[in-house]
Amino acid sequence: MTDEYILEFQNVTKQFPGVTALDDVSFKVKRGEIHGLCGENGAGKSTLMKILSGVYPYGTYDGTVIYNGQELKLQASAIHQATEKGIAIVYQELTLVPHMTVGENIFLGSEPTEHGSINWAQLYSETQTLLDKYKLDVHPQALVKNLGVGKMQMTEIAKALSEEAQVLILDEPTSALSEAEINKLMEILRTLKSHGVTCIYISHKMQEFFRICDNVTVLRDGKWVTTQPTSQLSPEKLVRYMVGREMKERFPQGNRRPGEIIFEVKDLHAEKADRAVLNGVSFDLRKGEILGIAGLMGSGRTELVMTIFGEFGKITQGDIRLEGRPIKSNNSHHAMEHGISLVPEDRKRHGLVLIQSILKNISLPNLDRFARLMRIDQNAEVAESLRIAKELTIKAPNLYVPVETLSGGNQQKVVISKWLLSGPKILIMDDPTRGIDVGAKFEIYKLMNDLAEQGIAIIMISSELEEVLGMSDRVMVMWQGRSNGILNTSEATQEKIMTLATGLA
After folding, report:
1. Does 247 score more than 60 pLDDT?
2. Domain 261-501: homologous superfamily in CATH
3. 10 Å Cβ neighbour count for 188?
4. Is the pTM of this model over 0.85?
5. What percent of the chain lies above the pLDDT cut of 70?
């Protein structure tokens, strides 16, 4: 391998019991480039990066990884060996200690010492030098728990770069960022590139590859498909490589016919810890309708649906009516009794018990329907869970595998399955396609259309304006905890939505 390339994967194969996660994968990464890595969930991206970062050590896979001209042979339980060699990874789920400062997190485990004690002046001085070098706008002594997600991500990147990283792997770095924070991250990546750092960029957002990457490698079903300069690709071509078929439309055309008003929210105010989180939200929802909710981060979107579900703010004013009758949801159990279900924004934290099986996750909120004389009718539990899993085409060997082993798209289907089994009238979906690939997104969209056609009313929050416009019948825009306008999608544009979202209208 010439000095032009810092990494080369040669015929890499990785198998798990019953599954081939990587199948004879070979490609090269140029030194100092930003290299995109894309593919559907389950394509093998994460497995390949875990080999590179030492999670799966040498000997647990077949093939060869060449790094800086030499074969990479990381030993068991030696993730730190990868770090010492200059290979660092920033995961989608951030790994910071919230009650420590930025500087303490960056140098955790490698603090500068003097006479047996931590040299705090040196620690914060070196932190500031590092932040200045890469133009990371965050204060060294700020507590991480007080930072926004964007600055937390900057801290994670600084932590990786503190070990003189030559290769930085970024896994879904923009999944929880606002547009302004995404722009800042792109600036940071360009700065890293100017300092000779090689970045491997994993994302499900197609436009980001064309915005920042020099070359893109596509994996599909564990196999290498292509590596090409982004200048030679188009979004449609990239999607075709990923899914192995032509996708003529991103948003399937449904046959929805919204009916009568089923749900009404009038002048809703709420507070949490004596802080106002909702300042006057009003909207109605029709049977068989998809109502999109748009707005910038901090606008109150998630706070609204969590309050409706009874798991966030205390309602101080306003009225919620279901089928013309006033209701109160003091907790999620009450909401479920009223026929309101919520697919949460963070499925891993709030939607799933990851170590439990698909079966247990689906049946958990529905145990009442399986109760027979103080015991659970396990035959009914399995039959109903299997039925709903088949309807949603959850891809898994059986219902007994742990949910944590599934791809993001299939995990999301498990969350949706458990709520559909409860027979909801209102299904709230908070960023339902976050962190899942383009093929799985299309399946979720089709499912939403099917549910709406069956008469279920859907409230969908999304951070992607294209998704809001592509899937909604109407769009409500949030701004500073209030509803700032409702648009029919026939008249809505991204510009109109952003005008309302920024309070300019």
Report:
1. no
2. P-loop containing nucleotide triphosphate hydrolases (3.40.50.300)
3. 21
4. no
5. 97
